[in-house]
Every structure is written in structure tokens, then in C-alpha cells.
Design goal:
It comes from Cohnella kolymensis. InterPro entries: Cof, HAD-like_sf, HAD-SF_hydro_IIB, HAD_sf. Pfam families: Hydrolase_3. By secondary structure, this protein is α/β, with parallel strands linked by helices. The protein folds into two domains: 5-79 and 182-253, HAD superfamily/HAD-like (Rossmann fold), CATH 3.40.50; 84-179, 2-Layer Sandwich (Hypothetical Protein, Haloacid Dehalogenase-like Hydrolase, Chain: A, domain 2). Helices cover 30% and strands 23% of the residues. It has an eight-stranded mixed beta sheet with strand order 5-4-3-2-1-12-13-14, with helices on both faces. It has a six-stranded mixed beta sheet with strand order 8-7-6-9-11-10. α1 (23-34) runs parallel beside α9 (246-253). The longest helix is centred in the middle third of the chain and has 13 residues, at 84-96.
Length: 257
């Protein structure tokens, strides 16, 4: 590979605070490709939740579900679903505490509750509707990520009870549920090993807690100006806010544009 490989998070990185793609970001991604660089996405979202973004930016490689499902040039190269027995136990435990769950596979997402305000408020920030009710959706299919809906401060309930799962907060009412050790960095590592690319040749842009491992792993990493301080400390560079042409500024900062 003659050019570099750049991974972009979506929410708060590619997408601005209104969930829009800034024109400067669209232009910057196209410029990268014209210069011979390869561009990929690394996100906590499900593939069905960012198809339009991939099409608009002309991207066919991505790390999704925080590293649990990876496609490269439209071919699946990594799958790491959550153990069904663990999901069964998690479902029972969450139900005891009045916390609903959402189960996510490659096609859609379903909820363990017919309706819950925490689900509605969290999912709405992704511009998605409340998932349909199907409490048995995790049975007989690969679930790559779950969402447990609980308030800030209730994380220890789950982290202590389920040491073989990782819980990463992404909203004040919700945490991602992943297999232990699952992360964007792990998904990227798998891709690099299969493709024979050195991590010194990759760049990563992100803005939130689920980006920390990725930013620490990449040869060069850029935290968005809108990122919390803990995320900024994990990166080698900090750019402007996403709404202030942060992607374009960051790419210029590291010499890619």
C-alpha cells in the first residue's frame, strides 16, 4: 500500500452535532482518496445504521459494532458475536433491575421492552426510531452488540456481575455491551493482520470513550475538539470541534492534506 489508511469514527467525528456530514468533511475524504490514501470507518454503529454515509463518501471498508464485525472492500473478514448464554444471563439480570436491553445483529435491532423512555431518548440521538419489541431476538442468531439502558452510576452492577463482557457508556441512559476485550482497536488489528499493513501506516480520528483504544493503537491519532479530556489524552493530536471543520483541520495538521 503506497498511501496511508485512515479510520474515522462517525458520531461527533464524521457527523456533526446535528448528525450531518459537513461539506468540508465530504471534500476532505474525497481528497484523501484522490491522493491514493484508503479511507475506512470505525464505529459503534451497526452496518445498517450507516449505509447512507458509506455510499455518500464512497467507503466500502469498515469496523462496526466497536470492532465485532469487520468488512473490507465489501467482504466479511471478522465476526465476533456475543455468547448466547451470556446474553441470556444478562437479560435476566437486567430485567430484575428494571433495565431494558436492545439486541443488534447485522439486519436490525430489537428491544426487550415494548417501549421505554430511556431507549427512545438514547436511540433518537442516532436519528433512529424505538426498536420493535422482540425479547427473544438474541436466540438463534449472531448478536454483535447489545445495549443496556441504565443511568450513570449503575455501571458497577454489570461490570462486577459480568466480567466476561465489556460495558462502555455512550449515552447518559445507555451502555454498549460487547464481548470481553472487544474494541475498535481489536477490529482494526484483525484487519491490518489480514491485509499486511503496519499500524505505523494508519491514522485514526475519534471523539468518545469507545475510541480510546483505537486512538492509542493507531500510529497517528487525532481526537476531535469536542472530545472529553480523557479521549484527547489518548490521542497524539487534537483538532478543532467537528462543527468547525475539525476533520479538514486535523488532516492538514498531520500532513495528509
Amino acid at each position: 500500500m503506497t498511501g496511508k489508511l485512515i479510520f474515522f469514527d462517525i458520531d461527533g467525528t464524521l457527523l456533526d452535532h446535528d448528525k450531518q456530514l459537513p461539506e468540508s468533511t465530504i471534500d476532505a475524504v474525497h481528497q484523501l482518496k484522490q491522493k491514493g490514501h484508503q479511507v475506512a470507518i470505525a464505529t459503534g454503529r451497526a452496518p445498517f445504521m450507516f449505509k447512507e454515509i458509506r455510499e455518500r463518501l464512497g467507503i466500502d471498508s469498515y469496523v462496526s459494532y466497536n470492532g465485532q464485525y469487520v468488512e473490507w472492500e465489501n467482504k466479511t473478514i471478522y465476526r465476533n458475536p456475543i455468547d448466547t448464554d451470556l446474553l441470556e444471563k444478562l437479560t435476566d439480570y437486567a430485567d430484575q433491575h428494571g433495565h431494558p436491553l436492545v439486541y443488534m445483529d447485522l439486519e436490525t435491532m430489537k428491544s426487550s421492552a415494548e417501549f421505554h423512555v430511556h431507549i427512545q431518548e438514547s436511540i433518537a440521538t442516532l436519528k433512529a426510531p424505538h426498536p420493535a419489541y422482540d425479547p427473544d431476538y438474541f436466540r438463534g442468531r449472531d448478536i454483535f452488540q447489545g445495549l443496556v439502558f441504565c443511568t450513570i452510576g449503575e455501571e458497577p452492577l454489570y461490570r462486577e456481575r459480568f466480567p466476561n463482557l465489556d460495558f462502555i457508556r455512550w449515552h447518559q441512559f445507555s451502555m454498549d455491551v460487547l464481548p470481553l476485550g472487544g474494541s475498535k482497536a481489536k477490529g482494526i488489528e484483525v484487519a491490518l493482520n489480514k491485509l499486511g499493513i503496519a499500524k505505523e501506516d494508519i491514522y485514526a480520528f475519534g471523539d468518545y470513550l469507545n475510541d480510546i483504544e483505537m486512538l492509542q493503537y493507531a500510529g497517528t491519532s487525532v481526537a476531535m475538539g469536542n472530545a472529553p479530556d480523557i479521549v484527547k489524552r489518548a490521542a497524539t493530536h487534537v483538532t478543532k470541534d467537528v462543527s468547525e471543520d475539525g476533520i479538514l483541520h486535523g488532516l492538514r495538521m498531520v500532513g495528509l492534506l
